[in-house]
Amino acid sequence: MTAFITFAGIIIGLLGCSVTLVTSHSAPVTARTEHGSQRLSSNSQAVASPKVPHQTPMVDAYNLPYSEDDNIVLNIIAGVEARPHRHSFMASLQRGNHICGGSILSKWHVLTAAHCVTKDYNQQPYPLGYFRLAVGLHDRLGYSEANLFRVAKITIHPHYNRTGFYNDLAILTLDHAIPRVVRGIKVSRIALPGSSQTAPIPNGANRFKVIGWGYVENKSSTKRMFARKLQEATFALLPQKECGLRTGILPMPITKLCIESSAKSVCIGDTGGPIFRAMPNGRLQLEGVLSYVSGECQGRGEAIVFSRVSQFLPWINNVSSVTPPAV
Questions:
Q1: Peptide bond before 50: cis, by omega within 30 degrees of 0?
Q2: Which partner from 48, 78, 167, 178 sits 20 to 30 angstroms from 247, CA to CA?
Q3: Quick one: signal sequence residues (predicted)?
């Protein structure tokens, strides 16, 4: 049975029972979950066979293990430490501790995954006071008040569906603008694709980079911890059909983008973060927002699944065009 894991400082797997989603032409059904029975609306996006597995509960973000020791050799499941501040569009979404990544779109807006900021049982956002955002970091612990921003508004994609993680996107509007320079670090913004059409990205190209402070391997033991320094790894694109076979979602919708893990993988705490690539003009372009992986972040042929940003440009541009005090 396929297992889905998401990493908002969160394990959201689908392990055990079967849930059948219905198309817009079917009557609503009830699905059994860890939280009891839940009614699926008639407009839920359909997942063709096989059956969608069961969802495991959220991991408490306050009790996740962290790496505080620079002498421990760590990596992003066979990734490497990123060059400090090279990817300064990267943000850390925190709820007590780091739980998710995010990408800075503008001085007011950060794009992340909807599952990072919503409750499992009703898909509604947590109270704004639960979160803060840290920018201009390389060392996850190396921040001051100047790096921290409060969240003034959470905008969840209107068609987000936690069962299957469809449209797994959220935009955070901050309480004050991110300055161009934070504690001597120039904070950048990541570029969006120029078209809502599917870009002709070559399959198998080992050119897609993922970054994050998520779970890493501790070479001195079997224990995993959150990374202290920002990690990165490159991956090849996985064809949609192959991704569907590995995740059990057939056909795999074009709103999802998949990469293939080998020795490398992503893990808890990486979700919400970006997958991006360097364009011929040198700019870094956001291609997706990390949603889940079809396994246990072991790097053994798993499919790593993202929300494909190019398919959500009208919504992203509409939300990110609104700035305070209009929010």
A1: yes
A2: 78
A3: 1-24
Query: DSSP state, 198?
Result: P
Lowest-pLDDT range of 33-47, 139-153, 156-170, 249-263: 33-47
Average per-residue pLDDT for the chain: 74
Helix (H, G, I), strand (E, B) or coil at 57: coil
Task: Return the bridge partners of 97, or none.
Answer: 95
Its pTM surpasses 0.85: no
Q: Which two tokens stand for residue 14?
A: 């689908």
pLDDT digits (tens, 9 = 90+) for 49-80: 223 332 222 333 333 333 333 332 223 445 67
Q: Are 186 and 178 in contact (CB under 8 A)?
A: no
First to last CA, the chain: 43
Q: Tell me the sheet residues that pair with 104.
A: 110
User: How does pLDDT run across 77-121, given as a tens digit for each residue?
Assistant: 456 788 887 899 999 999 988 899 999 999 999 999 999 999 988
Whole-Å CA distances, 103 to 44, 109, 164, 317: 28, 9, 23, 14
Q: Which residue shows structure tokens 């990205």? A: 201
Q: Which amino acid is at 204?
A: G
Rounded-to-integer distance, Cα 74 and Cα 128, Å: 32
Cβ atoms within 10 Å of 144's Cβ, excluding its own = 10
- At residue 325, the pLDDT reads 73
55 SS3 class: strand
In angstroms, what CA-CA distances link 147 with 112, 189, 275?
18, 15, 23
148 has a pLDDT exceeding 70: yes
- More reliable by pLDDT, 295 or 125: 125
In this structure, the chain runs to a length of: 327
CB atoms within 10 A of CB 255: 20
Interatomic CA distance for residues 222 and 327, integer angstroms? 46
Domains of the chain by start residue, with CATH? 88-187+313-320 (2.40.10.10)
Residue whose structure tokens are 């939300």: 319
